[in-house]
Write a structure and sequence with these properties.
The chain contains two helices and eight strands. The chain is of the alpha+beta class. It is 25% helix and 42% strand. The protein is globular and about 45 Å long. Strand 7 and strand 8 form a beta hairpin. Strands 1, 2, 6, 7 and 8 form a five-stranded antiparallel β-sheet that branches. Strands 3-5-4 form a three-stranded antiparallel β-sheet, with helices on one face.
Length: 142
């Protein structure tokens, strides 16, 4: 199974990330989004960053999670190469997510190939199928 693919969109970037679980699909969505900005295969895994997000539903959780990655890039200059140990928990208040991102801080060593301005709800889909196949579809403002 492929981790993610880009889909056609007229103005922004649209991708679908896959996984055997919703957690794996969320993690692959982070990699897909980062690949819009950097060649993720070239990012060294020197540093771990804890990421936490909350949401009233899975869509808001996904937007908040990916927005946290945009924040790490903008504010801390941290480029995640991949996301590991991602867990999602449901409670009466909504959802919480905890993850570890492995990556490195931005330097001249890494070519910056694009920007993500914001994560949107446009055309967002989250599908959890019973056969162990899940996907999330996201459009980001570039």
């Amino acid at each position: 199974m492929k981790n993610y693919e880009f889909l056609e969109h007229t103005a922004d970037a649209k991708f679908r990330a896959y996984g055997k679980s919703i957690e794996e699909a969320f993690a692959n969505a982070a990699t897909a989004m980062t690949s819009i900005m950097f060649e993720t295969d070239t990012i060294k895994q020197k540093t771990n960053k804890a990421i936490q997000a909350t949401g009233t539903d899975l869509k808001s959780l996904l937007v908040n999670f990916l927005s946290e990655i945009v924040y790490l890039l903008d504010a801390e200059r941290f480029i995640p190469s991949r996301v590991t140990s991602l867990t999602i928990n449901k409670s009466s208040e909504g959802y919480t997510l905890a993850a570890i991102a492995k990556g490195d801080f931005y330097s001249d060593e890494y070519e910056h190939i694009g920007d993500v301005k914001a994560v949107t709800y446009a055309e967002m889909e989250i599908k959890e199928e019973t056969n162990g196949k899940c996907y999330v579809q996201v459009v980001v403002d570039i």
